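S.,

As promised, the flavin mononucleotide run. Input:
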Amino acid sequence: MEFKIPVTQLIRQRRSVRNYSPDGMEPDMERQVREVLDLHTEGPMGNRVAFHLVHRKSAIAGQKVKLGTYGFIKGAQHFVAGEVKIGTFTELDFGYLLEKIMLYLVDMGLGTCWLGGTFKRSELADILNTSEDVVIPAITPVGYPAPSMSRRELLIRKGAKSDQRKPWNELFFDGEFGKPLQHMDNEGSLLPLEMVRLAPSASNKQPWRVVRSENNFHFYLNRTPGYGGFAPNVDIQHIDMGIAMAHFELSSWELGIEGSWKIMDHGKVVKKGTEYIVSWQTNDDCVSNLSPSG
Ligand SMILES: Cc1cc2nc3c(=O)[nH]c(=O)nc-3n(C[C@H](O)[C@H](O)[C@H](O)COP(=O)(O)O)c2cc1C
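Predicted complex:
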């Protein structure tokens, strides 16, 4: 499925939308959203996710239920929720798939906002009638953004410092931690890393770190101590890693830099408090494109 707008542009223009037009989407737009959901079901680690478009006033056993977001989301008539069987790297695959979906929704002129904490998970589990062995790691509202942000939305953004991102030298490294990756500008072959830097993350903690070594990009998780307790049984920062993978992969493909995800035994690149997750291995014939100024 092609993007209408270049994905690097979509990533730059995306933001969390918490204030929606209460009119909702036209039936044809709802149909298009469902099509996007149906196209994204299997993550790079092999977990399968079933995504659903859920109306705010879904009916369970004859009673109307209003999907609760603790007042964080205003006006949205629909939500996208995904259920996935608990397994290895469940949240990684979930984050990767839902972020791809969300970029397609942005491409269609719709707004989204990752919700990992501020929604009533058990209510949604009832609506979807999920079994014991599955989890709903996160959801997103979907709909047309309201013309302006609400005061509450502005306050939430200020609280999470949502308009800021960490600088390159804290996130990306050359061969080993402690040796920041030099880059000439935000263009060229290192653009996928800039797309990781711009990714959304829970509470904007930006826990991803990447070490480049020849044609491999090793992705690490720098966990925020004590974070994530608000969503029991869900590794929220693994969702962040999956989102980063989606940004890196989509922008690499757009630049014509092909590669694939692999879990590699690459030995000694370690740093206390940072855990290795996965590597992107660029295809050999793309390696010559990988000079920092490339
Ligand atoms: C996994 C994940 C969970 C999130 N959970 C919530 C949430 O529960 N409530 C909320 O208002 N925002 C939530 N956010 C949105 C982040 O606060 C937001 O992405 C971050 O502040 C950066 O802002 P931006 O998305 O506008 O770039 C979540 C984001 C991610 C990636």
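Residues 288-294 have pLDDT under 50 and may be disordered. Residues 15-16, 72, 113-118, 138, 156, 160, 162, 200-204, 236, 239-240, 243 surround flavin mononucleotide (CB under 6 Å).

- D.
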